[in-house]
Design a protein that fits this description.
By secondary structure, the chain is an alpha/beta fold. Helices cover 42% and strands 15% of the residues. It has four domains: 202 residues, P-loop containing nucleotide triphosphate hydrolases (Rossmann fold), CATH 3.40.50.300; 154 residues, P-loop containing nucleotide triphosphate hydrolases (Rossmann fold, 3-Layer(aba) Sandwich), CATH 3.40.50.300; 66 residues, no CATH class; 82 residues, RRM (RNA recognition motif) domain (Alpha-Beta Plaits, 2-Layer Sandwich). Helix 3 packs parallel to helix 4, helix 4 crosses helix 5 and helix 7 crosses helix 9. It is globular and about 95 Å long. The N terminus is likely disordered. The structure holds adenosine monophosphate (AMP). The site of adenosine monophosphate has 13 residues, from helix 4.
Length: 557
């Protein structure tokens, strides 16, 4: 057994599940997984207090899969989730972990999509049903026996379900399930309403909560940046331009992510390497030595691989992926600010992870300030500063060593010293963008694409006007119309959510949908002009992230 699978192997999960977990690249269980998996595997009821980002999905999915009998072609586990997005996400997670379990199938049951295929999948023997409460109740009205074989129930994000008004639906669902079932409830908060449900419907539940004792992290300056998951690499590259670092460690969650990010950094000329549990011990030691002596400046690591790493040169820690719990955050950022020096820690936060940020702030007793992506001006200033720093030591004696050559060359070429110096600069900077226009052109990330990017502060009280005014309209392809929804990044929306909703409920082919732009307070989607009104009517009641989509034609004027 290798070191990094030891944590998961100790649970004695079905080997096919363990193999799938290893294939995902997880190195060790998160705190909530350590505590929950044995309880759920033992068939006990449980209340887990955990939010998104802690690894809670695997905390229930792995032990539930372990308890499934693939030979029985009937629903055995029901997972209730507040929104379609979460239901789909949970169903996908189950599929990933069940990849090597032949015969196990998962069905996602949610509103907006036709009921027929969902019912068919259940009748065809899906053992895992992941559902939103409203749509599941519709199924129960058609067939009250549909849940009669379920012996594991999970309520995921129970507090969100209640907030969305699913209380009555939950009661209907509880009644339709066998009384002998196991019930597991996950919730970020435990208000009285949730406790009441637990009292009525759980039997002698075990409580699991990630311990959050206060931690101090004084010497380290902390900041966070809101960003979508698929923009993390670009965000990291932008931040590196302006951060004045000596050595830097970046934390990600999986082995694959260490490799991907390290090679993206290398491609941009950084001296970077990956550090993960798959890398042999002596090679890991070499990486750390190189970081110490400056042959490397950046190491991209998983938590496991970075254990015990102590390199005084480290000035910065980037938490590219959110840690699972505040302790591990404190542990990670403690890699900088060694020996009384100052350190800086940056945390990338996706819209869904904002809650975890609040938990970190509470536990550390410190506000983690928000920073924005550097704009083109900041990048230009940083590049010029680097150039100044690299050239200024050379200026002192260059004239005595190369002055005569300069005279000769300007005479031979017939140009001014300014023209020659400019040509030499062009050569020395090797095509690097060094004007605002050039930087703006090849910026990896348009600042406004970030959930809350580096836009100027709003001046008026009309939130969307500023966005609209600053943006030059992107030309529309022929036959396409631009539509707008008031849902944006601040509602936890990503382009894939909009795409999923429109594909599912609009019945369109993927190619029919053009560019999707998610802004902080609204989003734009390009749809076919032909049949647009019909499509918008079809999407009238569509909800995304629990909110009405209300897509409308958008006029640029
Ligand atoms: P969740 O809190 O369930 O939404 O999970 C957050 C993210 O963490 C998901 O992308 C999971 O794939 C990932 N994840 C869950 N458990 C682990 C683990 N033990 N190691 C690495 N990544 C994990």
């Amino acid at each position: 057994m290798t070191q990094e699978t030891g944590g998961f192997a100790a649970f004695n999960l079905n080997p096919n599940i363990l193999a799938a977990v290893i294939a995902t690249g997880y190195e060790e269980p998160s705190a909530i997984q350590y505590q929950s998996i044995p309880i759920i595997m033992a068939g006990q009821d449980m209340i887990g207090q955990a939010q998104t980002g802690t690894g809670k999905t695997a905390a229930f999915a792995l032990p539930i899969l372990h308890c499934i009998d693939p030979a029985k072609r009937e629903p055995q586990a029901l997972i209730l989730a507040p929104t379609r997005e979460l239901a789909l996400q949970v169903a996908t997670a189950f599929e990933t972990y069940a990849k090597q379990m032949p015969g196990v199938t998962v069905v996602a049951v949610y509103g907006g999509a036709p009921m027929g295929p969902q019912l068919k999948a259940i009748r065809n023997g899906a053992q895992i049903v992941v559902a939103t409460p409203g749509r599941l109740c519709d199924h129960l009205r058609r067939d009250e026996k549909v849940l009669s074989t379920v012996n594991h129930l999970v309520l995921d994000e129970a507090d969100e379900m209640l907030k969305l008004g699913f209380m009555d639906d939950l009661e209907v669902i509880f009644k339709a399930l066998p009384a002998t079932r196991q019930t597991v409830l996950f919730s970020a908060t435990l208000p009285q309403s949730i406790r009441a449900i637990a009292e009525r419907h759980l039997r002698d539940p075990q409580h699991v909560k990630i311990q959050t004792k206060t931690q101090t992290v004084t010497a380290i300056e902390q900041a966070h940046l809101l960003v979508h998951a698929d923009q993390k690499t670009s965000a990291v590259l932008s931040l590196l331009e302006v951060e004045d670092f000596d050595a830097l460690i970046m934390f990600v969650r999986t082995k694959q992510a260490t490799l991907d990010l390290a090679s993206a950094l290398e491609a941009k000329g950084y001296k970077a390497a990956a550090l993960n549990g798959d890398i042999a011990q002596n090679q890991r030691e070499r990486v750390i030595e190189s970081l110490k002596d400056g042959r490397l400046d950046i190491v991209v690591a998983t938590d496991v691989a970075a254990r015990g790493l102590d390199v005084p040169r480290i000035t910065h820690v980037f938490n590219v992926d959110m840690p699972y719990d505040p302790e591990s955050y404190v542990h990670r950022i403690g890699r900088t600010g060694r020996a009384g020096r100052e350190g800086r820690a940056l945390l990338l936060v996706t819209p869904r992870e904002r809650r975890m940020l609040q938990v970190i702030e509470r536990v550390t007793g410190q506000k983690v300030a928000e920073v924005r992506l550097p704009d083109a001006q900041a990048v230009l200033d940083a590049r010029i500063k680097k150039l100044t720093n690299s050239l200024s030591p050379l200026v002192a004696d260059a004239e005595s060593t190369h002055g005569d050559l300069l005279d000769r060359l300007t005479a031979d070429i017939g140009c001014t010293p300014r023209a020659l110096a400019a040509a030499l600069l062009r050569k020395a900077t090797n095509g690097q963008a060094l004007t605002l226009a050039a930087i703006e052109k090849d910026r990896p990330l348009v600042p406004n694409n970030a959930p809350r990017g580096d836009r100027p502060e709003r001046t008026g009280d009309r939130p969307d006007r500023g966005d609209r005014e600053r943006r030059a309209p992107v030309p529309l392809a022929e036959g396409r119309a631009r539509c707008r929804t008031a849902l944006g990044a601040r509602d936890g929306i990503a382009a894939k959510n909009l795409l999923g909703a429109i594909l599912n409920e609009g019945g369109l082919a993927r190619e029919a949908i053009g560019r999707i732009q998610v802004r902080d307070s609204f989003s734009l989607v390009e749809l076919p002009e032909d049949g647009l009104e019909k499509l918008l009517t079809k999407l009238k009641d569509t909800r995304v992230a629990g909110k009405q989509l209300k897509l409308r034609r958008y006029r640029e004027d």
